[in-house]
């Protein structure tokens, strides 16, 4: 099912606040082989919150996850993420285009803390591979 | 293995291994349970060469390299395009190498790192970039 181009500019509802626990950070660091003790939160850790926002979006579009390829991802930080933060992502669709039967969806997610201050901006492109 | 962070300085390449077990642990830790990172049949059915690493796994390795080179400096920016899949075999591991050069300090006082990320000699990340406060 193609991605609806009229979604461009739409902001989706914020994700549920995500508490950054030392357990979650340690598990993430262990999975990427960074090991313990964890001196600081890995810089790609906010993908956890970003991915939740992307999944909500894909579910709303009834898109099968296995047909999605991550095209690109960038994080720009206002401040480092710390254990104890409570993060929320608000995703906006910034572009939809179709190339060779694939839909390319550009998104920007603002990740804010419990006080509502911007912690980081995550931009992502998702490629929805059409049926072969 | 902290590097000397002067503009133009080469950052010593670091090679990391990725196994299927790493991908399974990463799926749980990140919440990304896309079956193309776990299940060979599904990956091939959607036209991939096999089980591939999460693009974000490879980018996380860039984060590790930056931390090693800079002694854990604050990362202000990190990102890349995922231009080639990193195929992870059922047995053994995929090997990803992160290399780089220190860029010119920006007006904002940040140190950009220009990077090259390869698997078996093939660039797997496009325009990989990181900037640190160091």
From TrEMBL, chain A:
Gene3D superfamilies on file: Hotdog Thioesterase
Taxonomy, superkingdom: Bacteria
Please give the CDD domains that the UniProt record associates with this protein: R_hydratase_like
Q: Which residues form the FAS1-like dehydratase domain?
A: 7-121
Q: What name appears for this protein in its UniProt entry?
A: MaoC family dehydratase N-terminal domain-containing protein
TrEMBL record, chain B:
**Superkingdom:** Bacteria
**Which SUPFAM superfamilies does the protein's record reference?**
Thioesterase/thiol ester dehydrase-isomerase
Q: Which residues form the MaoC-like domain?
A: 7-101
Q: Name one Pfam family in it.
A: MaoC_dehydratas
Family matches, as InterPro entries: HotDog_dom_sf (IPR029069), MaoC-like_dom (IPR002539)
Q: What Gene3D superfamilies does UniProt report for this protein, alphabetically?
A: Hotdog Thioesterase
Q: Which PANTHER family match?
A: (3R)-HYDROXYACYL-ACP DEHYDRATASE SUBUNIT HADB, 3-HYDROXYACYL-THIOESTER DEHYDRATASE HTDX-RELATED
Q: Please give the family membership noted in the entry.
A: Belongs to the enoyl-CoA hydratase/isomerase family.
Under which name does UniProt file this protein?
Answer: MaoC/PaaZ C-terminal domain-containing protein
Q: Which organism is it from?
A: Nocardioides vastitatis
């Amino acid at each position: 099912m193609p991605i609806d181009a009229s979604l461009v500019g739409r902001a989706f509802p914020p994700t549920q606040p995500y508490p950054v626990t030392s357990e979650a950070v340690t598990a993430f660091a262990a999975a990427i082989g960074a090991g313990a003790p964890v001196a600081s939160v890995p810089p790609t850790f906010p993908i956890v919150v970003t991915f939740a926002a992307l999944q909500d979006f894909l579910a709303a579009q009834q898109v099968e996850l296995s047909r999605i390829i991550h095209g690109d991802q960038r994080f720009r930080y206002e401040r480092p993420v710390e254990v104890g933060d409570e993060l929320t992502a608000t995703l906006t669709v910034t572009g939809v285009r179709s190339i060779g039967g694939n839909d390319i969806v550009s998104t920007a997610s603002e990740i804010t803390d419990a006080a509502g201050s911007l912690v980081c901006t995550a931009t992502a492109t998702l490629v929805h591979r059409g049926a072969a | 293995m902290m590097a000397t962070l002067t503009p133009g300085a080469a950052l010593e390449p670091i090679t990391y291994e990725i196994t299927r077990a790493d991908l399974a642990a990463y799926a749980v830790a990140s919440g990304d349970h896309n079956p193309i990172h776990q299940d060979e049949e599904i990956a091939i059915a959607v036209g991939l060469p096999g089980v591939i690493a999460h693009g974000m796994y490879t980018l996380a390795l860039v984060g590790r390299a930056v931390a090693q080179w800079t002694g854990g400096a604050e990362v202000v920016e990190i990102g890349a395009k995922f231009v080639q899949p990193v195929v992870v075999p059922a047995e053994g591991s995929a090997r990803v190498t992160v290399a780089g050069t220190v860029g010119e300090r920006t007006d904002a006082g940040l140190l950009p790192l220009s990077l090259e990320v390869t698997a078996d000699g093939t660039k797997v990340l496009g325009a990989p970039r990181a900037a640190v406060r160091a």
